[in-house]
């Protein structure tokens, strides 16, 4: 039975309880393009609003198309519940705002997607929530940063540009000593890494990337691992232990396990408070688009990862490549983390330093014929970007180096095309990057 299957290929197609549409027996998941749902009677409506019964109320909060996606992603991550939202950014925002209020703080890894840095450093600050950054090269930095107002730890499984796998077990162990949950952004490593198995309490995804996989849809989600006791230290987690006056005085840490029989307080609070109040739901059309991607994501991840391995091999031998950045190429303990935390591949992201600095990096990007030059990762197509002249162009040379972006650094997201074609495109562009430009010749 698919429900018991632990295999991602099967879960992606059959996970959750969707077998066919209950009304029409349609096998493909339908798009339930509706805002609202007919209540059976006034008692039914009242019970749904009071959470005495679970069911559809309004599409800002839940939708049957989204529900199929949520159950499958929860199963893929070994989690208990999932809430979809309109983007990966919304997922990161919800993850923090679900545990922190004004006056609180959280500790985040310094290795982060730039959009998340903006959210944490600027926007959450304006809301009164303080981020404290910790360098993950020493997990103890997380412990050093906490105080009595620290509500969670946050990090990415496979952050670029450095592509150093995050020490999940080490940091989650520290967190659990203090009743602080670890929230992991697993956008860059779905299927091949399951942070909940390594101590994380919550996983967030930008579904826009490898799970959607076709560069067509923006979406995000939060997966509740069901493995964190939100009531163990009421002072540490006030949003789960103090009465919520917006919901009749509910104490989320207590009431959700009583009502559902499951430890999914984080997911339920995100849905019934944050989707209710902040909005940002994933539209059912977009949920459907992501389901199409999800159904083949495990197969695509295999091809992404095996292509990336071949690309790394090729790049290491090319004379115009100064350095290749890939998770397994890091020396010592950081490189060993891929063995500890990943299975079935080491990811599709590859960094290269092209010999000759900014000019060579630019030339290389411009010479690519098959790779797309875009600010995205995780598309089925191969993608490339030169951060020094695009995403990071406002930074000073010192800031660039601190972010791990050297002048010639190019980020590649290796697609699922035939590896020979990917390598052929890289080869001709690298050869071109080493040639003097016409301007220099004249
Ligand atoms: N997290 C990571 C690691 C990302 O790379 C991105 C986007 O690039 C996001 C979150 C934000 O996702 P979205 O673009 O779906 O809002």
Shape: globular
Number of strands: 12
Bound molecules: pyridoxal-5'-phosphate
Structural class: alpha/beta
- The number of helical elements comes to 17
Q: Which strand-content bin applies to the residues?
A: 5-15%
What does the largest sheet look like? 7 strands, mixed
Radius of gyration, in angstroms, nearest whole number: 23 Å
Strand order of the largest sheet: 1-7-6-5-4-2-3
Write the CATH architecture name of the largest domain: 3-Layer(aba) Sandwich
Low-confidence runs: none
Q: Give the name of the CATH superfamily of the largest domain.
A: Type I PLP-dependent aspartate aminotransferase-like (Major domain)
Distance between the termini: 69 Å
Structure description:
The chain is an alpha/beta fold and 442 residues long. It has 2 domains: 8-293, 3-Layer(aba) Sandwich (Aspartate Aminotransferase, domain 2); 297-441, Aspartate Aminotransferase, domain 1 (Alpha-Beta Complex), CATH 3.90.1150. The protein has helices spanning 8-14, 42-49, 64-76, 88-97, 114-126, 140-144, 168-177, 238-241, 252-260, 265-278, 284-294, 297-317, 332-341, 357-367, 397-402, 419-433, 438-441, and strands at 81-85, 105-109, 130-134, 150-156, 182-185, 202-206, 220-224, 321-325, 349-354, 372-373, 383-385, 409-413. The strands form 2 sheets. A 7-stranded mixed beta sheet has the order 1-7-6-5-4-2-3, sandwiched between helices. Strand 4, helix 7 and strand 5 form a beta-alpha-beta unit. Helix 1 runs antiparallel to helix 3 (64-76) and helix 9 crosses helix 10. It starts with 7 loop residues before the first helix and ends with a helix. Bound molecules: pyridoxal-5'-phosphate.
């Amino acid at each position: 039975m698919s429900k018991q299957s632990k295999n991602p290929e099967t879960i992606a197609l059959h996970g959750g309880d969707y077998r066919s549409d209950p009304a029409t027996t349609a096998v493909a998941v339908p798009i339930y393009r509706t805002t609202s749902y007919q209540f059976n009677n006034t008692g039914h409506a009242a019970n749904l609003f009071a959470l005495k019964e679970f069911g559809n109320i309004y599409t800002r909060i839940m939708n049957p198309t989204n529900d199929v996606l949520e159950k499958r992603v929860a199963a893929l991550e070994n989690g208990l519940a999932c809430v979809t939202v309109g983007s990966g950014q919304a997922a990161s925002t919800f993850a923090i705002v679900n545990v922190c209020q004004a006056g609180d703080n959280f500790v985040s890894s310094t290795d982060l997607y730039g959009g998340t840095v903006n959210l944490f450093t600027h926007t959450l600050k304006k809301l009164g929530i303080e981020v404290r950054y910790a360098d993950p090269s020493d997990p103890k930095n997380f412990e050093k940063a906490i105080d009595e107002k620290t509500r969670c730890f946050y990090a990415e499984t496979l952050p670029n540009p450095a592509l150093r796998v995050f020490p999940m077990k080490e940091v989650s162990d520290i967190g659990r000593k203090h009743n602080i949950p670890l929230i992991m952004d697993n956008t860059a490593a779905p299927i091949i890494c399951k942070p909940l198995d390594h101590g994380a309490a919550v996983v967030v995804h930008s579904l826009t990337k490898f799970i959607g996989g076709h560069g067509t849809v923006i979406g995000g989600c939060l997966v509740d691992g069901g493995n964190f006791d939100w009531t163990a230290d009421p002072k540490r987690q006030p949003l789960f232990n103090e009465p919520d006056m917006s919901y009749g005085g509910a104490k989320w840490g207590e009431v959700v396990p009583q009502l559902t029989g499951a430890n999914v307080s984080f997911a339920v609070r995100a849905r019934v408070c944050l989707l209710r109040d902040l909005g940002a739901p994933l539209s059912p059309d977009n949920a459907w688009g992501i389901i199409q991607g999800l159904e083949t994501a495990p197969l695509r991840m295999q091809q992404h990862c095996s292509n990336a391995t071949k690309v790394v091999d090729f790049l290491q031998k090319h004379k115009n490549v100064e350095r290749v950045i890939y998770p397994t190429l890091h020396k010592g303990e950081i490189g060993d983390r891929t063995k500890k935390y990943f299975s079935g591949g080491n990811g599709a992201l590859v960094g290269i330093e092209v010999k000759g600095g900014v000019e060579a990096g630019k030339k290389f990007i411009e010479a690519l014929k098959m790779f797309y030059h875009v600010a995205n990762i995780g598309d089925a197509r191969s993608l490339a970007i030169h951060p020094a002249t695009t995403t990071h162009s406002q930074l000073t040379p010192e800031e660039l180096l601190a972010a791990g972006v050297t002048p010639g650094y190019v980020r590649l997201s290796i697609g699922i095309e035939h590896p020979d074609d990917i390598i052929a495109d890289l080869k001709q562009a690298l050869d071109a990057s080493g040639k003097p430009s016409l301007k220099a010749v004249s």
